[in-house]
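Dear Dr. H.,

I hope your travels went smoothly. While you were away I took the liberty of generating a structure for the chain from your last submission, since the lab meeting agenda had it listed for discussion. I wanted you to have the full record in hand beforehand rather than looking at slides cold. The sequence, exactly as received, is reproduced here:
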Amino acid sequence: MKILVIIPSLEPNNMLLELLESIRVQLEKAENSQIKAKFLIVDDGSGPEYAHIFQKARDRYGCILLRHAVNLGKGRALKTAFNYFLNEITDFHGLVTVDSDGQHAADDIICCIKEFSDENTLILGCRDFNQEGIPFKSRFGNKMTRNVFHFLG
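The corresponding predicted structure, in token form, is as follows:
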């Protein structure tokens, strides 16, 4: 099974490289040997001061790197990646999207990939925002949105 791992990224730190490494380690395990993954990173306008991280990702992990000249947002970064997948990637079973800031564990990513049964499969993951390790900004944003919808509903 061949899967494209899409990672939209804005101003990444070493967590991006740690994520790539942990996915690579998970894929090398015998029980995951049927999965072949390629990484695609969308640099969403990070600027030249982050170029070294993207270059390491390309050099160490063979990542495909697409760039936006300016920050266009995560949604546009995903659309850019999906368009690339549809036009340039052949004979892959599907794709998975992952955040670059450490919010997704490699073993969870592999579990989602293993659920692919055919090309018409959609798998949605969810996070527990009360777990340790969820960035404050994500936790706050999720809880604020939940409260706003509760108030409006």
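Two observations you may find useful: The longest helix spans residues 136-152. The beta strands are 2-9, 36-44, 64-68, 94-97.

With kind regards,
E. W.
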